[in-house]
Amino acid sequence: MALMTPAEYKRSIQQMKVNAYLDGRKVENLGENPVTRTVVEATAKLYELAADPRNEGVMTATSHLTGEKINRNLHVNRSREDLEKRADMALLTSQTLGTCNYRCVGCDSLNALASITTEVDRNKGTDYNKRFNNFLQRAQTNDLAVSGAVTDAKGDRAKRILEGDPDMYVHLVKKKADGIVVRGAKMHQSGAFSAHETVVLPGGALRKGEEDYAVAFAVPNSARGITYILQYNALSAEREKAEDIYHLGNPEFGQRETCLMVFDDVFIPDENIFLCGEVDFASGLIQRFAKTHRMNCGGACKVGFADIIIGAAQLAAEYSGIEKAAHIREAITNMIRLSEAAHACAIAAAVKGREEPPGSGVFMPDDLFGNVAKISTAHGFWQIMALAGDIAGGLVVTMPSFKELKNPATKGYVEKYLKAAVPAEKRMRITKVLQNWTAGLHGPGTWHGAGSTQAQMISLHRAANIEEKKRIAKKIAGIED
Amino acid sequence: MALMTPAEYKRSIQQMKVNAYLDGRKVENLGENPVTRTVVEATAKLYELAADPRNEGVMTATSHLTGEKINRNLHVNRSREDLEKRADMALLTSQTLGTCNYRCVGCDSLNALASITTEVDRNKGTDYNKRFNNFLQRAQTNDLAVSGAVTDAKGDRAKRILEGDPDMYVHLVKKKADGIVVRGAKMHQSGAFSAHETVVLPGGALRKGEEDYAVAFAVPNSARGITYILQYNALSAEREKAEDIYHLGNPEFGQRETCLMVFDDVFIPDENIFLCGEVDFASGLIQRFAKTHRMNCGGACKVGFADIIIGAAQLAAEYSGIEKAAHIREAITNMIRLSEAAHACAIAAAVKGREEPPGSGVFMPDDLFGNVAKISTAHGFWQIMALAGDIAGGLVVTMPSFKELKNPATKGYVEKYLKAAVPAEKRMRITKVLQNWTAGLHGPGTWHGAGSTQAQMISLHRAANIEEKKRIAKKIAGIED
Amino acid sequence: MALMTPAEYKRSIQQMKVNAYLDGRKVENLGENPVTRTVVEATAKLYELAADPRNEGVMTATSHLTGEKINRNLHVNRSREDLEKRADMALLTSQTLGTCNYRCVGCDSLNALASITTEVDRNKGTDYNKRFNNFLQRAQTNDLAVSGAVTDAKGDRAKRILEGDPDMYVHLVKKKADGIVVRGAKMHQSGAFSAHETVVLPGGALRKGEEDYAVAFAVPNSARGITYILQYNALSAEREKAEDIYHLGNPEFGQRETCLMVFDDVFIPDENIFLCGEVDFASGLIQRFAKTHRMNCGGACKVGFADIIIGAAQLAAEYSGIEKAAHIREAITNMIRLSEAAHACAIAAAVKGREEPPGSGVFMPDDLFGNVAKISTAHGFWQIMALAGDIAGGLVVTMPSFKELKNPATKGYVEKYLKAAVPAEKRMRITKVLQNWTAGLHGPGTWHGAGSTQAQMISLHRAANIEEKKRIAKKIAGIED
Amino acid sequence: MALMTPAEYKRSIQQMKVNAYLDGRKVENLGENPVTRTVVEATAKLYELAADPRNEGVMTATSHLTGEKINRNLHVNRSREDLEKRADMALLTSQTLGTCNYRCVGCDSLNALASITTEVDRNKGTDYNKRFNNFLQRAQTNDLAVSGAVTDAKGDRAKRILEGDPDMYVHLVKKKADGIVVRGAKMHQSGAFSAHETVVLPGGALRKGEEDYAVAFAVPNSARGITYILQYNALSAEREKAEDIYHLGNPEFGQRETCLMVFDDVFIPDENIFLCGEVDFASGLIQRFAKTHRMNCGGACKVGFADIIIGAAQLAAEYSGIEKAAHIREAITNMIRLSEAAHACAIAAAVKGREEPPGSGVFMPDDLFGNVAKISTAHGFWQIMALAGDIAGGLVVTMPSFKELKNPATKGYVEKYLKAAVPAEKRMRITKVLQNWTAGLHGPGTWHGAGSTQAQMISLHRAANIEEKKRIAKKIAGIED
Fold first, then answer.
1. Do the chains contact at D233 and C435, CB–CB below 8 Å?
2. C320–D417 C-beta distance less than 8 A
3. Is the pLDDT of residue B392 over 60?
4. Among B84, B245, B248, B336, which would you mutate to test the C interface (most chain C Cβ atoms within 10 Å of its Cβ)?
5. Neighbours of B148 (CB within 10 A)
6. Could you report the predicted ipTM of this complex, rounded to two decimals?
7. The Cα angle at residue B258 between residues B255 and B260, in degrees rounded to 5
8. Can you give the pTM of this predicted structure?
9. Mean pLDDT within B338-354
10. Which of A264, C308, D7, D410 is the most exposed place for a label (fewest CB within 10 A)?
11. pLDDT (tens digit, 9 = 90+) per residue, D340-350?
12. Minimal CA separation from B324 to chain D, in Å
């Protein structure tokens, strides 16, 4: 089967019966609701990009299962070049969408499963890898949009899993003849409701006794028992109220839309289960997911966003006639520096990638550089926001509604007093883009995406070869033990 | 006359006919429109605070004109203690409102005028100071809310005032027998539409030939020819749509509401004119305004906001059960450090204040510490936002609507999965407060308030005694010239 | 008795038999050894400054014990104005010396003892305060240089006091009829060997069972059993080798010279003992010491150093002809900003100071601002070093010896190729000053002075009223418990 | 001919008559003078590393001129893999030496010449490339140590080249039948006196009329008219005085030793001239040099140093028993993060390298990532120093001489009071290493190496495709021009 077209994707989503709620009401039509529509449009755009011959090799890959051309979001990385292309895909989609591509977590989850199932099977004599490959091949053949789900609700963090409400982490509640029943909730799910399937992983390391929580599986979007409760904030309201999407900061694709994904006793058939009880592999699974995801999230996705911000800030400076000022040039250059330092980490993570486990054919990026990518971006993105906000000027905060441009009582004033080196509307439009980036949810969003910085600091400490550095230092010091 | 009560203030505003537009429509009733209402409520709260005996001396002062108790926002600082109390007032109002107090720019403009008119009169033989005192006494006696207006529209910054559209800066267009007619627009006016009067200053230094732009005056809110075009953004839309203000990030007082204030041939009678053509004093006037305003804005107002953020972040940590983690304590401590370093600058600016000009009785804070206060806050506030966003967790980005708590289909899920050490609603409420601070317009808002950092860096360079430092360094180096 | 003159001080030091070692050899004459001489000269300069009428009130104070004029280094702060003057003294001495004034720790230790002995006596019925006042009056009357000693050797930090070698903390080893015998060592003692007396405090909080470690006392420089082992580093060697002190980075006063001060069974007579066994007051004593010391160290001493650095950097820029470049001006302004933000914290700490304990007449600075002062400086000083190093240029690293200016083979070349807007020698001299600051021991020295930043972060967290901030945040959030 | 051995190198240097001055005296024997000896030892170590089979391919390469195995320092990069190996070599030598490898600038200058001479020849019909290849082949065959010289004396920077003393920039003063005579001086030459040859490049872009300054050439170390005036500072003095090099911070290889290299009418034969008058290529030459050099300097050399610092800091923490503290782990992790972010930039610069000019066979790293590498390190190294200084503790500033360990009067005290989890000597040794890094000349040295950050910011702005970012931003904004 060929790659899905944007139109086919939209049709397929219409046909699924998704149980999704936004601002206290059921979403009747994902593609028409002004908020959820942005997710559908962004996902459709990904199908469009994959069909564009200019993106061949970046948005597409060759399946190692079938030899067919597939969407790279469904590809298991088989080489360092694959890892580089994977990051390039994240960069391209961010530059194009200015928001989440909604398939990133899914793609990285698939890679983590491809790797860990090989390892579990080798150690436990299970056949998860075969099941996984069957699922993957089906997804590839039908060109499905696959989301990934990782973070559990957790509740009171002072309590371990088994101490609190057992449902705060997704877990097996019943074994059946041909599958299992799971309960719990995954938080912060980016656009999951508009994917065809979701791949669910345990959210962290597990101990003996917590076997019921060591479950990984795939589940269709419209499975019985799944409810999506969507995020809602000021930008949601603004979009709902907007008469013209071009009055918004990211007209077509909006902000990142997430949801709480509730599993209320959902049945998972055996063929979709890729881990079930092997607590000693939960940590490895999540670490491998984090490995690829931090590379992409920190060193590619946010770099694409930064490109938009830098371009918009430069335009805003030109529109105001201040682009030649020394401190403006310095601010632009610093944004580039911060963004490209993270970008370099993704490239390094890719080219220093390794097959993992050996013999699996699955390539994982270097963990050290992947974590540095994400930490650099977590700090750097706030700085980029600050620099862009500096250039954007006070108007980024105080701009009036675009509707004033149609209001006979104010139109003349706004056109007159907000024009600068370009007409008012153009200046307002680029200012609105910058408002979205400097005064939206991007600061904490970037910080917490792919896990918070604290988690990456721990990973980085583990990934670094500190013993080797001690050896080098002792040699210089002339210390012999 | 006694201080105005909140109810009297609200009534007085209702009686004024304010020509204000929001999102393309005229605001019919400032106190009822959900957006403008927040400004009215915040201003009313200031009257309430002034009436509270616990705030005696902070919110009130003794008029040097009448010897009566007045609102400190209408007071001219007569001592270092006055400057300290002025900063304390800014701190208290920020802690109480969590948004702009809307009278800060007005207060600092009045102080700048009290100082500069003395100086102009001495040099030019004018009688601006008498006019100003008459105006001030009237404002004090009637306990008026007085706003201040500084920043011109400016347009293309690559052009000097006289090169571009002459209206981009507020200026005199006609002299009349008993006054002048002015035209132009002031941007970024915080809540000006809900004040009784606005004091207008030139926005920057002026040169010979630009006499028409050297105008300072007072003007009532409802003067003919004045139009307010209000800011509009996502938070405006959210508030308009909200069925319950407690679903918002700052329920009662909202975000800072600003406007473009257009002067379309507005007549200003002589008695309200405090500068008219004296180009060589424009720079001094704006510098004295900046002096007090940067102290208050950087070292007091934002410190009060930081107190809210720190308190909310600590609560969020406790509600999630993570408050004992080392990195959480470190983040809290760093927020305090950043905020109190700016606070210290305001205290230092006040206690190192000086009478200016000598013999005027008007006290101005130290310019060096005032500028350091604002620059420290401009950088520090972004860091505080980042630290608070870290503690708040991903939920600060992805939280669903409060309406889900009433939605039978989702209520149970939200209550179950968003509870932690406290019930879901409490956690959502504090998270919403943090969303307002870490994902609202506060980053660039704080940066640009009281002028952008670049302006303060220039002022700071000028305020510092670099020659004295060179002398000290030469002595250490043993260099004799 | 009048204040001591510099000459009298030098004579008095010659007469003491100090047991001091530098680079493996005994120092025979403190005033002649090129390294220890800098400490004697710096201390003598303090006596000179105190005698200068221009410094009246800053370098001197009026004794509350005798009503006589005394050196402010021996004064107990009796008001907020005293605290301000105390910080002004630290600023002045740093600007003048460009190195440690060597009496700062002593002064702050005396203040801590004045406060805590009042409190111990009230609680325990002891008479430490009287003893202390007798000692202080004697020091004031004879205008003695008094050093302070706080930090113990500690050894393996993973062990508590009683677990490891008992001597790693100074402690009582024997009680005698008329006094006690103490053993241990204090580290990082700035110039202690050139003071007349040293006041010794316990280095940290103590628990029940550790009574022998709760000792505070005064001891003369030449007491039997005391050995000073001086620091030795590259700058020591450079000074030893220098034929002309004007070839050095701080010609007259050198770098901060410290020592390990060993107490090998030293007898302390009862009248010099100010704490002995009261473990529950050790923490309070050290906290009060830290309170004043962090204010002075962070917000005044290092600000004086920064003034030298800023002045030298500005001169270096002018000497190279680059002072008008935008990034140079920005660097200078940033140095001022960083330095003055710390300075503001000292001012705020002083003006928000309080009598402690109430009724004691002893004034202590505000702990919150004092800690912020030190933390701001700890970070800021590294940044100032970096900015100064940027302006200084590569020459700050690569400059040749001043002796080349006398070497016939190279003199012409150096004069020709190192001249710029000024002759080579002048440029080399200011570059050498900057080398001392950007490439000496100042980074870690500033960081660890008055305790490391980690200690101050803990103090700051304790000093901040977080409960009040929570209350404010709850009010904004509409949360009622 | 085979690669040179360390012994052969040392012999060859002894045979050259180098005119070098240190601290006002002629250096009679480079290999015996305690200061210059470190440069000879470091250079010899490079020959040793090249001979070690474990470093095959990193320290060696295959000459494209002869097909022979050569030292990589003499290799022209012919592929991206070469660029990666080039950076790996810089990393390895820094980790091994803890100081400059003294051949880095030479290597990068050779690469710049290989590239630009191709281009000049194509445009001007010259035969510089052939000359250059002849020189290079001779250097490769004899395995010569080749230094590079770039930065001119410059003098007063407010003046252009032709306005001031003409000698402030190296330039042609006379044309002869078979060569040219040059005059001027190059500053900051790392170890040039211990190389066999130096390759000299113009220090910056040149304009028409400045043809005499557009000279590039090779010159032997002992050429008539060349004088080396060596840097001299505190660390020089310490080394001169040291009785045992293991009392020093980098015992064997010392600090980076630089010199002022004076050209007093030096004759350069035609065959050694690679540019002569082509002003329009001066800028390209220096930019290509900067391109490779910033990659290596910022993203590899300093990363190797950071590895030593991190290892030493970790050891210091373990030796003091504090390595488990949360803030120590965080500091270690942050050092890794900062260092590896720069490392990633070098890797990215290499893998994104390109043939330049096309058809030349010469590969240059990507300029954008190379500049980001250096800027990241310039800022990051100061932070690493600060973090290491934090961990090292006050002892890094106040430690006594190692000679006290042999002094009967103090030996017992030092052994007792400086021991912790390890004996005192071991702790002192690692502390001395950290003193070298946190309190030496590394801050400004790192900042200014490969040009100051300001130069790199300009290069970065030029290297970034800002127009493309504007295009992306306009698309998101819906702006059509």
1. yes
2. no
3. yes
4. B336
5. 27
6. 0.95
7. 160
8. 0.96
9. 97
10. D7
11. 999 999 999 99
12. 13
